[in-house]
Amino acid sequence: MTTSIEYTDQGHGAPVIFIHGFCEAKEMWKRFETEFSPYYRVLCPDLPGCGETKWFEENISLEYTAELLKDWISKLNLEKPIVIGHSLGGYVSLALAELMGEELGGIGLFHSTAFADDEEKKGVRNRTITFVEKHGVNTFIDSFVPPLFTEEHRETMKDSIQEVVKIAKTTTFEGLVSFTRAMRDRKDRMNILRDFSGKKLMIAGVLDGAVKIEASRKHQSYVDYYHELPNAGHMGMFEQEQDTLQMIKEFLEA
């Protein structure tokens, strides 16, 4: 592998890896690191072209991203890590589960899905690429991040939204465009979720505009722990922080 994954590494014990979503970085998980590092070894990587991990390829796929992370996990000698991914991070987690199987201790999908994009969503991805090519990363981020929160939270959580905007703007143009393509072109991995033998968690936002709750509910029979956040959009780690911490705590203890 040709890149160096930048990451945080706190605590001791069983390894838990949190993988950030699209236009995010490892800083998204600060509160989770604080909560869980007294009991687990908590690792939060930056995906290529995001945060501090440099962009290095002309294009990237979820499969190649999974190869990179498998190599990184191997170098760190992490045994049976539990991998929890937000949005894009969930797609990467499923690709990692397909690649590593029982080498993983468990997987968690956080505002994510095992389904491939439908035609409508592929159209949204294509328009994103066109917009970013025309207007640049920062202008896109300013319009992209606030709607990830519910309308109510856009009023009450302005500091959190600005924090996410700041993190998002560390994404490179190449990383943003290539991961948009990777999400658009990803395959359906419902069979991977179904057949994965480790413990499985899903957290869904009832008001999520990016991953519709109707689609999330179709995963319910394939996971061991399924939770819905009634007052969250796509950013439950901020919108219902205490609830999500408790849900993940119960999953890790199991």
From TrEMBL:
<keyword id="KW-0378">Hydrolase</keyword>
<dbReference type="InterPro" id="IPR000639">
    <property type="entry name" value="Epox_hydrolase-like"/>
</dbReference>
<protein>
    <submittedName>
        <fullName>Alpha/beta hydrolase</fullName>
    </submittedName>
</protein>
<dbReference type="Pfam" id="PF12697">
    <property type="entry name" value="Abhydrolase_6"/>
</dbReference>
<dbReference type="InterPro" id="IPR000073">
    <property type="entry name" value="AB_hydrolase_1"/>
</dbReference>
<dbReference type="GO" id="GO:0016787">
    <property type="term" value="F:hydrolase activity"/>
</dbReference>
<feature type="domain" description="AB hydrolase-1">
    <location>
        <begin position="16"/>
        <end position="242"/>
    </location>
</feature>
<dbReference type="InterPro" id="IPR029058">
    <property type="entry name" value="AB_hydrolase_fold"/>
</dbReference>
<dbReference type="InterPro" id="IPR050266">
    <property type="entry name" value="AB_hydrolase_sf"/>
</dbReference>
